[in-house]
User: Fold these one by one.
Assistant:
Number 1:
Amino acid sequence: MEYRVLKNCRVCGSERLREYLNLGRQPLANSLSNSPSGKSKKYPLSVLFCQDCSLSQLSIIVNPEILYKNYPYNSSVSNTFRNHCLELAHSAKMLLAPRIYRGRESKHFALDIASNDGCLLERFRDCGFDVMGVEPSKNLAEKSRLKGIPTANSFWSSNRDYALCDPHKPDVITATNVFAHVHDLEDFCRAVHKNLSKDGIFIIEVPYLTNMIRNNQFDTIYHEHLSYFLLRPLKMVLRFCGLDVFRVEHRDIHGGSIRVYSSREKRKVESSVWMTMNKEERDGFWDFKTYRSYSSRVRKIKSDLGRIISREKKLGKKIFGYGASAKGNTLINYCGITNTDISGIIDDTPDKVGKFTPGASIPILSHNHLDTNHPDYILMTAWNFSSEIKEKTGHLGCRYIYAIPEVRVD
Ligand code: TMP
Ligand code: ZN
């Protein structure tokens, strides 16, 4: 089956789901094609709000075997992300008591779920941890093994055995930017509970829904992202599975994320947890009314961006995108931008170069391309890394088009 329709909220089981955004039928945002005439299949893309637990979620679930067959995302390309990972490894270390095994102090053990190319685990290793990754994509698992990181090529599930045994169960399990991809959250968290050491901690990082709504980040909506989280539903699903949230931190990464710490054994619940919950409720994010005007703000971005691009094309200007990200593909396809509007999208991920974006079929080019083909404009398709991209392109003297949070030219 290619996809199935969601009937109940994946956190609380409620049927009281209401749509607040419909982006029409869209191709899978990461399904890059090898030829410019490659046809991409399209699937409905709309977001529903659960009126009982406030989880935002897609109306359909595409078969993960189709979505993750060959996943082009590569964490280590961005410096910003590498630094972010180092900071995460440090803060995990600060929370752990020394580990004593057979009378001697031994290394802590970190396991990363959906470990990608091993970017986060390399940082944990630098902080003195033993590490292990679990990664469903074959090409990325292989990449991570080449860095000397033991990696199981598998989805994370309570039915699988990851060959972890006491007393070597992980002290830390991390799941950064993977929770949004998971349909069966309860099974996922039960697997964490089963595999985590008794006094261990589980750290989740997800883009925070309040930013997606406030800053019109509709481009982060694509078929891989099944859920868009507030703390409220996250806390709920963790509690069902015997994990208690004790700390919440806010980070700038990916347009604004929350880092949620939970544990099997009770720890002192820090004020950040209650402050975040109270603010969500006070700011109206537990109420459908807050989401009503979102769709018209998104439509405005589509018309403003279309207007600017067609005006500049008429003037003969050359426009490139920077960052062949999944979110760039949602933006481009939803806004109806074509490969005559944009000459190419630059990306520093070697695996992406030479391919074509799904739907619009825009060629993905390496950075060198800009030296011979001077752009007049760069469309920031990876706005979450805009400062890094500006550093790399500042010498070209071009201008930048931003679509998020609203359309503007710099
Ligand atoms: P992401 O927002 O999904 O992480 O995607 C960002 C994309 O931008 C990814 O394909 C890598 C690309 N990128 C570059 O090519 N060069 C860069 O300097 C940065 C920061 C990102
Ligand atoms: Zn719900």
Number 2:
Amino acid sequence: MNLILFGAQGSGKGTQSQLLQERLRLKPCASGDLLREAISKGTPLGQAAKPYYDRGDLVPDELVIGMILEQMRELGDRNGVILDGFPRTIAQARQLDASLARQGQRIDAAVYLEVPREVLLDRLAHRYICRAAGHVWNTKTHPPRVEGVCDFDGSELYQRSDDTAEKIAHRLDIFFSETIRLTDFYAAQGKLAHIDGTSEPETVYAHILASLGQLGVLEGTSYPRQQASGQ
Ligand code: ADP
């Protein structure tokens, strides 16, 4: 099963992606993480993407699409992938459909996590990420045991370079003017799972699962059996 997870910055995609990876055995494919890795390594892609990333602008399609398709090929996982942060535009969504069709694959469902802008702004202002593995913490709602240190791996926590108030506002504007249009695109394909992202993570996850069930995309996965046997 290939899933798309989309929602504005701070909508909880990272948390839900983690749960979906663990429980549905999907491989993650997160455009933002791939770009940050390319930028920190200084690869040609990273160098080309950096100015856009630093401004909080979308990185041009031709850079991002190639990167995602390559990553999906490398993952080549039978169980499927979870796309996080891609596609963000209708053009990217169309290209993704076309490329997957050429490989005999498809997107099965697109999960939209809806969270109001005021809640997002508050969540993002308190967001910290760990250096070692990108674990996400929130100093207000989900603080680490020791301030500034990741509970999981002991690495330092930092705020992302694009998580300043001004850049957050800019990225949210792009989301609500551009990326939000994906809801109509995937609804027209009968693949949209529209989820309220304001509840607790486990509740949001349960709603995602119920929605995927309704869309009929859990059939043929090993998910229900694994749950029943408590694995
Ligand atoms: P957020 O959702 O909080 O903006 P991400 O880590 O998903 O965080 O993305 C960070 C930045 O990476 C974006 O602001 C943009 O510059 C770039 N980026 C990520 N995904 C895409 C994409 N699909 N198309 C264009 N640019 C992207």
